[in-house]
Amino acid sequence: MAKLVDVIVYLCKAYPKKSDLSNARLTKLIYLADWRSALVNGRQITDIKWVFDQFGPFVFDVKDTAAAHPEIFAIEETTTVLGSPKTIVWLRDEHYEYELDPEEEETLDWVIEKSRQMAWNRFIRLVYSTYPILTQERGTELNLVELAAEYKKTELVT
């Protein structure tokens, strides 16, 4: 299982539009990668315990991890074009050597490719269209590996 710091570094390096990497988008990219990995590989990439709250799949792990590594990441508080608060995570150390296995990189690349052209609203629709969000109640912890197995069974039946 990859360390979260390595996943964040990889996304900061690989994501084409750096100014889009708000804490919210970064968190949801990692959620999508964990969900995809649970579906394809039977395991998450990270050890995040995902929670379905009023903002969809959300945790403080991503921002907390970035803040705990100021030598690697910079965190910038800014605003969206509509004036809402926005927290951007930047890679401060471009030479940081992340450790991911090829399967993890492939999953992250897949998520980047599928979402990189999406404006925020379309991106959020993608996140909210995932099986865990469609089937679970707000406030619950999302066991992505169990939900992936459940999803696969329902897909085989229908």
**Helix percentage:** 40-55%
Largest sheet, strands/sense/barrel: 3 strands, antiparallel
Rg is 15 Å
Strand order of the largest sheet: 2-1-5
Structural topology:
Layout: H1 4-14, H2 23-41, E1 50-53, E2 56-58, H3 61-67, E3 73-79, E4 85-91, H4 102-115, H5 120-128, H6 131-135, E5 141-142, H7 144-157
Antiparallel strand pairs: 1-2, 1-5, 3-4
Question: Can you give a write-up of this model?
Answer:
The chain has 158 residues and is α+β, with helices and mostly antiparallel strands. It has one domain (4-157). Helix content is 50%, strand content 15%. The protein is built from seven helices and five strands. The protein has helices at 4-14, 23-41, 61-67, 102-115, 120-128, 131-135, 144-157; strands at 50-53, 56-58, 73-79, 85-91, 141-142. The strands form two sheets. Strands 2-1-5 form a three-stranded antiparallel sheet. A two-stranded antiparallel ribbon has the order 3-4. Helix 2 (23-41) crosses helix 4 (102-115) and helix 2 (23-41) packs parallel to helix 5. The mean pLDDT is 94.
